[in-house]
Design goal:
This protein is mainly β. It contains no helices and 13 strands. Strand 11 and strand 12 form a beta hairpin. GO terms for molecular function: MHC class II protein binding; protein tyrosine kinase binding.
């Protein structure tokens, strides 16, 4: 897994033996065991890593073209509900969508659909998990008035 894995050497003396994985990939799912030997004692702990995958189809989102966003997890229980939150901390522009499947379809994505999205997965065993991602949309976000004035001899954008 090198070079994606590191130990935080500066915190080892304080008893922090955390493993850092950047970026996490789907194939990293599984059980991890840490063993620490100190003098004659051996301490160990087990940590299970689950992964949530967010997939865009198509991967490059273009304004007004159908967009499917899927959210899946390695969790083994049955999926009960998927909720999508858009710009949830920005007041009146925030939106929420919930469905039984893990897929959100946006028929005609607009520049206003860009920004922070969070998918929240709720499972039959009461487990709730979420992932946040930033949606970028390719399109034209120009002035509402298509007339631009510029002084002769200057640059116009």
């Amino acid at each position: 897994m090198k070079p994606r894995v590191s130990l935080q050497d500066s915190t080892l003396r304080n008893g922090n033996f955390s493993l850092r994985i950047v970026p996490v990939r789907s194939e990293d799912v599984g059980l991890y065991e840490a063993q620490v030997e100190y003098k004659t004692e051996v301490h160990s702990c087990l940590v299970e890593l689950g992964v949530i995958t967010v997939t865009l189809s198509p991967p490059n989102v273009i304004e007004n073209e159908l967009l499917l966003i899927s959210c899946n997890s390695s969790h083994r229980a049955s999926l009960v509900e998927t909720c999508w939150f858009h710009n949830e901390h920005l007041g009146p522009t925030s939106r929420t969508f919930c469905s039984l499947s893990g897929t959100l379809s946006i028929l005609h994505p607009a520049m206003s659909d860009a920004g922070s999205w969070r998918c929240q997965l709720r499972y039959s065993d009461k487990e709730i998990m979420s992932a946040t991602f930033n949606l970028q949309i390719l399109g034209f976000d120009g002035p509402t008035n298509p007339v631009v004035y510029a002084a002769a001899g200057s640059a116009a954008d």
